[in-house]
Design brief:
alpha/beta, 8-stranded parallel beta barrel, 11 helices, globular
Length: about 270
């Protein structure tokens, strides 16, 4: 009889950092892909608010709602037998009101079954982080390029290149770690700064466009699989080009239907 699969937990990630074992994280938004990624051995599945872009077709992550994040989260949780499932808190659910933030985090945990939540920002959202952590809910932080603030930044440029912003990132990272987050995503920041922050923190860092020295890495699944073709930042490595494969399969199907080659006699019922 096969043994039960051992669940990845926040403690597992801390132990991985301690032994310098890199952490692999990918986004997931549905049952089918989440099951495949879980079976492949991914440690963390992030139900990203990037669903707003790659699933719903919005230009930014801002439009996605709490209900929609819970919907995607619950699908991923049902698939994940091993991976730690983290759900993004959407824009407007935690900024400015820590009580509202706690209510949103509780909804995510209760209604999706997720294991943790993630939110963007540093000192400005510290009250929300502290209140959520104090309720026993694991929180992952996110600094650097924070997509929910894209209109404030004015674009998807590399962040924290100038000394003032770099120092703010260092301070925010320390404050978040002190507040009790279990891991920190660093997005699109200089590799040297990400290495410095990684070495200074007792918690794991997960990089996206932050160089090779973070404790782990994350990519958006649809980007990594080559389903999104217009998005080509320097940090993205495509491991397959599924967009081409899907189009070709659809074209073959259309051709078979048009010439009445599908379904065949063997694919029909008597």
């Amino acid at each position: 009889m096969e043994g039960k699969v051992k669940r990845i937990t926040t403690r597992t990630l801390a132990e991985m950092k301690a032994r310098r074992e890199p952490i692999a994280m990918l986004t997931a938004y549905d049952y089918t892909f989440a099951r495949l990624l879980d079976e492949a051995g991914i440690e963390v599945l992030l139900v990203g608010d990037s669903a707003s872009n790659v699933i719903a077709g919005h230009e930014t992550t801002l439009p996605i709602t709490l209900d929609q994040m819970i919907y995607h989260g619950s699908a991923v949780v049902r698939a994940a037998q091993r991976a730690l499932v983290v759900v993004d808190m959407p824009f407007g659910s935690y900024q400015g009101d820590s009580r509202q933030a706690l209510r949103a985090a509780i909804r995510i945990m209760k209604e999706s079954g997720a294991h943790a939540v993630k939110l963007e920002g540093g000192e400005a959202v510290l009250d929300s982080v502290q209140r959520i952590v104090s309720a026993g809910i694991p929180v992952m932080g996110h600094l650097g390029l924070t997509p929910q603030s894209i209109y404030q930044f004015g674009g998807y440029r590399v962040r924290a290149k100038d000394p003032t912003e770099a120092e703010k990132l260092r301070r925010d990272a320390a404050l978040l770690a002190e507040a009790g987050i279990f891991a920190l995503v660093l997005e699109k920041v200089p590799a040297s700064l990400a290495q410095e922050v990684t070495e200074s923190l007792p918690i794991p860092t997960i990089g996206i466009g932050a160089g090779p020295h973070c404790d782990g890495q994350v990519l958006v699944l649809h980007d990594m699989l080559g389903l999104t073709e217009a998005f080509s930042p320097r940090f993205l490595r495509r491991y397959v080009h599924l967009a081409k494969i899907v189009r070709e399969a659809a074209e073959r199907y259309i051709q078979d239907v048009k010439r009445r080659d599908f379904p065949s006699a063997a694919e029909s019922y008597e």
